[in-house]
Amino acid sequence: MLEAGTLKALAEAVRRGDARALARALTVVENDPAGAADLLRALGTAGGARAHRVGVTGPPGVGKSTLVAALAAAWRLLGKRIGILAVDPTSPFSGGALLGDRIRMGALAGDANVFIRSLASRGAYGGLSAAADDAADVLDAAGFDPVVTETVGVGQAEIEIARAADTTVLVLAPGQGDEIQAMKAGLLEVADILVVNQADRRDADRFVHALEAAFDLRAGPRPPILETIASKGEGVGEVREAIDARLRPDAQEAVGTRRLERARRRIRAEVDRRRAETWWAGRGDVLDAAALGVTAGELTVADAAAEFAEGKERDR
Ligand SMILES: Nc1nc2c(ncn2[C@@H]2O[C@H](COP(=O)(O)OP(=O)(O)OP(=O)(O)O)[C@@H](O)[C@H]2O)c(=O)[nH]1
Ligand SMILES: [Mg+2]
């Protein structure tokens, strides 16, 4: 818990864009949901929605970070200040942060107008997606726009984070059966813009045609499919334009819908978190007893849960 004076000072420093304050604020967001709530209130962001929130997702190693770095460079030329969150699914082994992301984006290191941070999951309630939303709020309040979140699109949670953005960019690369994998994971559905990176590989055009064909079999509009060689900056300008076009007045409706969905989801998640926190307080011993009962084979998990849900939990 942060003391009120500290909170106010921290919020002010974040709004000024002070890098150390930002780092500290994001650490609060990462570790302490209640502290994050206080901090966001002090920041006065009330859920944000000033910055364009861009989610970049896709299979491992397709060039997401390289593309994000190239996009950031393109936005810098337009005078934008860019916030980047590299979201790592919780890894108890690596301890979370994908330091490699920061290193790969090293060309932008030292530019105060590009802020890059890896984000690992906070445990228990809320989890990764709440932390990612709150972190984006912090960067938004600090005046970064766009705020880009990179997730590896392998698990449902990571895909959900990308889907929650105003604009979701799905990055694929030719080969490796990515196309089929992407469809299996429901990845294609989340794309507002589809980028085929590593277009320098010779099977790139064939891959793009296969993707186009896959979309033609589906209902609904086909997202733009753009080819890039992110490592050389080729095609990145077109991706930047396609992202920015999502905020054009004639196209804004989709983003508005997305923001409503996000707000709905966040409210629900925060209610769940608060209720769970209150509800479990003081029930630790009974939970331990029920857990012992389950491991001893005396009752099933479902039966134990039913006792709790119906208010009939008991000390065994
Ligand atoms: N040939 C080729 N290589 C590329 C291209 N873009 C990126 N790479 C390389 O692909 C490798 C992976 O790039 P990253 O940007 O780290 O990929 P990523 O998708 O962020 O990877 P993870 O975050 O680990 O999932 C690096 O060695 C890049 O230099 C490209 O357009 N063509
Ligand atoms: Mg990456």
Descriptive labels:
binds guanosine-5'-triphosphate; 316 residues; binds magnesium ion; 50% helix; Rossmann fold; alpha/beta; single chain; seven-stranded parallel sheet; 13 helices
Question: Can you give a write-up of this model?
Answer:
The protein is of the alpha/beta class. It has a domain at 46-251: Rossmann fold. Helices cover 50% and strands 12% of the residues. The protein has helices at residues 4-15, 19-31, 33-43, 64-77, 99-104, 127-141, 156-163, 178-184, 204-216, 236-245, 252-280, 284-295, 301-309; strands spanning 53-58, 82-87, 114-119, 147-152, 167-172, 193-196, 225-227. Strands 3-2-4-1-5-6-7 form a seven-stranded parallel sheet, with helices on both faces. Strand 6, helix 9 (204-216) and strand 7 form a beta-alpha-beta unit. Helix 2 runs antiparallel to helix 6. Residues 91-100 have low confidence and may be disordered. The structure holds guanosine-5'-triphosphate and magnesium ion. Guanosine-5'-triphosphate is lined by residues 60-66, 104, 152, 197-198, 200, 229-231.
In short:
The chain has 316 residues and is of the alpha/beta class. It is built from 13 helices and seven strands.
Roughly how many Å apart are the termini?
35 Å
The order of strands across the largest sheet is 3-2-4-1-5-6-7
Shape: globular
CATH topology of the domain at 46-251: Rossmann fold
Tell me roughly what share of residues is in helical segments.
40-55%
The count of strands amounts to 7
Q: Structural class, from secondary structure content?
A: alpha/beta
> Which hetero compounds are present in the coordinates?
guanosine-5'-triphosphate, magnesium ion
Over the alpha carbons, how many angstroms does the gyration radius reach? 21 Å
Q: Which series of helices and strands comes N to C? A: HHHEHEHEHEHEHEHEHHHH
The percentage of residues in β strands lies in: 5-15%
CATH architecture classification name of the domain at 46-251: 3-Layer(aba) Sandwich
What is the residue-averaged pLDDT? 84
User: How is the biggest beta sheet arranged?
Assistant: 7 strands, parallel
Low-confidence stretches: 91-100
- What is the CATH class name of the domain at 46-251? Alpha Beta
Give the name of the CATH superfamily of the domain at 46-251: P-loop containing nucleotide triphosphate hydrolases
